[in-house]
Specification:
This protein has helices at about 30-40, 50-55, 85-95, 110-115; strands at about 5-15, 15-20, 45, 65, 80, 100-105, 120-125, 135, 145-150, 160-170. It is α/β, with parallel strands linked by helices and about 170 residues long. It starts with a strand and ends with a strand.
Amino acid sequence: MSRPLLDIVVASANNGVIGRDGAMPWHLPTDLKHFKALTLGRPMVMGRKTFEAIGRPLPGRETIVVSRDPSFAPEGVSVLADLEAALEMAAVSAEAKGVPSFVVAGGGVLYAATIYRADRLYVTRVAAAPDGDTCFPPIDPAAWMLAASEPMVRGERDSADAIFETWVRRR
């Protein structure tokens, strides 16, 4: 098997906002099901704030948290102080599990640090422009090609429309 791919999975508003005060500024249960389908069985790397917003390790996914706080040690996750070490751990784990990729699942600092080396972007483009304090980096069309775009079938509990986009790195 070749080296596992690095996938980024994110929900981003039309204005790039992905968070406000440690939470997503929308309610999209349909997107959460999409996130689960994309990440189940794959190692996930996320920052401490993202992990704390989720509040627990997600079932069926190995969770690797990047944190410089040596006292941060939640049960059921691996905590590493170095992003490079976390990405390497996720790649080795994905290879051992026989899965084709691992996932960076937030937040903004980790997205900015990994977008230049990711292989695929799974972007839920939320049809909204909320105020926020965390944004996804711009997707450079010279580096990325939109490979798929599918409207989300909006559920009755979803607070906005959205489109599921898949971007692949131009080689």
